[in-house]
Amino acid sequence: MQDTYKFKGMRKQLIALLRQDERITNEAIFEAFDQVPRHFFLDLVFAEQAYSNTAFQIGAGQTISHPVTVAFQTQLLEVKRGEKILEIGTGSGFQTSVLCQMGAKVFSVERQKELYMKAKQIISHLKFTPRLVFGDGYKGLPGYAPFDKIIVTCGAPEIPNALLDQLKVGGIMVIPVGEGKEQTMKRLIKVNETTFDQEEFGTFKFVPMLEDKVR
Ligand code: SAH
To answer: Which residues are catalytic, by number?
Structure first.
């Protein structure tokens, strides 16, 4: 896959669109969207559309999240350089790469082998070095915990306890929660080992977070 002036120009247009969304204010997010070639994460036939604000099939019946959704979740996460971030649902690897570009130490879990393999290839081609794990995100990654931040990019029927445990005190988790086709975007701040502050940020549509379905 090639990056070209045309694709760079399309990225600028996408960033202009993101800037119109007043919820997204972190300059580092716009910078990351400028640097990470989103079309690398889509099949060649879709490359032209990589910079429109839509979700796409990435194989295995899964989708790459809307750019605005990626930007908004990243905004809620308040990413700072050097932070240890756990992502559940690597999918295409685009969100993972955005977090890497922002200077985070990223750990990302994907339950589908096909997507895990694809993402691994593209991410290493882009010279990012997150730790990618093929496994069940419900369990988190206890061996690497605790995390400063946790981002879940699939719709969780409920908030997995393992993830609450693996968040640092003072840490932030952003997770879409809901049983049906729609979820409520939630942000949790861990106040102490047993107390979490919770805020809600509207309705989104994610593919479901499935437990014990690693394949
Ligand atoms: N962050 C991704 C979004 C992909 S869609 C991107 O930028 O493209 C959500 C992904 O979550 C899918 O790839 C799906 O397979 C994965 N997923 C669903 N349940 C999971 C689980 N329990 N553990 C890990 N990944 C899961």
So the answer is: 65
The pTM assigned to this predicted structure is: 0.95
Dihedrals φ, ψ of 183, to 5°? -130, 160
> What's the gap in Å between 5 CA and the centre of ligand 1?
31
pLDDT of residue 44: 58
Q: Is the CB of 38 under 6 A from ligand 1?
A: no
DSSP label at 92? T
pLDDT, residue 57, reads 74
148 lines ligand 1 (CB under 6 A): no
Q: Ligand 1 pocket, 26 CB below 6 A?
A: no
Complete domains list, the chain, with CATH: 5-204 (3.40.50.150)
- How high is the pLDDT of residue 45? 57
Specify the DSSP element, H or E, that contains 59: strand 56-59
Q: Which residues pair with 84 in a beta bridge?
A: 105
- For residue 154, the ligand 1 atom closest to its alpha carbon is 9
Q: How far is it, in rounded angstroms, from Cα 106 to Cα 100?
A: 6
Vertex 192 angle, CA 186 and 195, to 5°: 50
